[in-house]
Amino acid sequence: MSGGVAGPEIERLIQLLARLPGLGPRSARRAALHLIRKREELLAPLADALQAARTSVVTCRTCGNIDSRDPCTLCQDQRRSRDTLVVVETVADLWALERSGAIATRYHVLGGTLSPLDGIGPKDLNLASLARRVAAGGVKELVLALNATVDGQATAHYIANQLGDLNVTITRLALGVPVGGELDYLDEGTLAAAIRSRTPF
Fold first, then answer.
1. Which sign, positive or negative, has the C-alpha torsion 11, 16, 17, 18?
2. Total Cβ atoms within 10 A of residue 106
3. What's the predicted TM-score (pTM) here?
4. Among 74, 116, 139, 155, which has the minimal tally of Cβ within 10 Å of its Cβ?
5. Could you tell me if 34 and 91 lie in one domain?
6. Comparing C-alpha atoms, which of 46, 75, 50, 45 is closest to residue 60?
7. Low pLDDT (below 50) residues in the chain
């Protein structure tokens, strides 16, 4: 991967870095060289942080978030609304919503979407635990914050069909024009969704 000019330890570091999302072989080589040049400032602390994450990070059995405790920090936060539950595909989606600061509620991470072509069915996702949480009572609104992909929308419809009888309001994120978006630069699907989801002025 690096042309055989580095020792096996460096080659292994480059190969592992290249597995990370967004890093190809060239970026991995650059990152490895930077880490090695700054080994006291970056490499040693990074190694310590990775070891700590390896031993202490767990998946929350309640919502599917990752944290160093179970139940996670968000599930234990008493200031969060208990009557609204936001359903997301991944922990990355949960973090994105948290960064927005738009809602202070509890979450449920599905761990993906239904995808028959990839062999991912209902039993492969955290759908049974979602049904249990809603059936236990207290949840008045279920917000389906799933991606606007074919699989995401199919999963949203599946959840709505499965949980529709549990006396809970099921909503989804609005679709359409992003803040700061110019119509000329948007794709046809986004424009069509914006027209369908129009609201009173």
1. positive
2. 22
3. 0.83
4. 116
5. no
6. 75
7. 1-2
